[in-house]
Specification:
This protein is 23% helix and 33% strand. The protein is α/β, with parallel strands linked by helices. Strands 2-11-10-9-13-14-15 form a 7-stranded mixed beta sheet, sandwiched between helices. Helix 4 packs parallel to helix 5 and helix 5 packs parallel to helix 6.
Length: 290
């Protein structure tokens, strides 16, 4: 069985960029109830911190402190998009996911879904949102050519999503971009309006000593962090790297609060703090209110 999605040429980014301006509010904001939801991962060293309550968190929305109604490790249904770079040093990743389709399915909950996309010069949907990836025996024909990383990220973030589900995009790439018509600043703008948490996985050798982000990836790193994600090294099997990201997502807190002031349209910066000392926090930097 062959999975072939529509190839999206770089020129179509003009339409995608325009669509971002009218995209629905990000997942963290519920316009109907004016409740803000924020995914927050709290670690002490390399271990997730459990058993925190709403009293342990402090959230600033556009600089104003907000009383938190609830903090829970909540298992909302997840829509996972795997975005695979089929050029360069990560070309073999698509084959690893083809062989590991069963392992990916085992990570998903009963209501979770996964979509497979790939990019080179063009961006293609290889499999739509389904309960599992194509079976190992399926034929997958990914695109080939140059590398349009910025275009692929922007187009994937611009997709409309279900507001009742959590959304995560995990991109496997070597980090090079050779053929995009968009620029890193466009990706950052897209991340500000995106409904998805966005992660990038790159070969370990693409990062500096200690896993530091090199200058060529800093602009993309800004976009990823804006959307509450991170850049992680790929030092072995791609499915194992995905599993680590998915485990973090499963152990993230979901904070709920109702803004204490009338929220104006536009960008709202977020800052999350935890009263417990010695911990690190990962959360998106804000949300867009239409």
């Amino acid at each position: 069985m062959t999975f072939r999605g529509p190839c999206i040429h770089a020129a179509a980014l003009i339409t995608a960029s325009a669509a971002l301006a009218v995209a629905p509010a990000p997942q963290v904001f519920r316009a109907t109830t004016e409740v803000v939801l924020v995914d927050v991962l709290v670690r002490e060293g390399s271990r997730p911190v459990r058993n925190l309550t709403a009293a342990d968190f402090i959230v600033y929305d556009a600089g104003a402190p907000q009383p938190i109604d609830q903090a829970s490790v909540e298992q909302l249904p997840i829509d996972l998009t795997l975005l695979l770079d089929t050029s360069g040093s990560t070309k073999a990743v698509a084959e690893q996911f083809r062989r590991g389709a069963g392992r990916v399915a085992a990570m998903l909950g009963p209501d979770d879904r996964v979509r497979l996309m790939a990019f080179a010069t063009e961006v293609a949907e290889l499999s739509p949102l389904l309960r599992a990836l194509p079976a190992p025996g399926a034929t997958i024909q990914p695109p080939s050519g140059g590398t349009s990383l910025y275009d692929a990220l922007l187009l994937t973030m611009a997709r409309r999503t279900d507001p009742a589900r959590r959304h995560v995009i995990v991109t496997f790439t070597d980090g090079e971009d050779t053929t995009s018509v968009s620029q890193p600043v466009d990706v950052t703008s897209g991340a500000r309006m995106s409904e998805s948490v966005v992660h990038l996985v790159v070969p370990a050798e693409a990062l500096g000593s200690g896993g530091t982000v090199p200058s060529r990836l800093r602009a993309v790193n800004d976009a990823v962090e804006m959307a509450g994600g991170s850049i992680a090294p790929l030092s072995g099997d791609a499915v194992d790297a995905l599993k680590r990201i998915f485990e973090d997502l499963r152990q993230s807190y979901l904070l709920r609060y109702t803004p204490t002031w009338k929220a104006l349209p536009g960008w709202h910066s977020l800052s999350v703090r935890v009263t417990r000392p010695g911990v690190t926090i990962r959360a998106r930097r804000g949300y867009y209110r239409p």
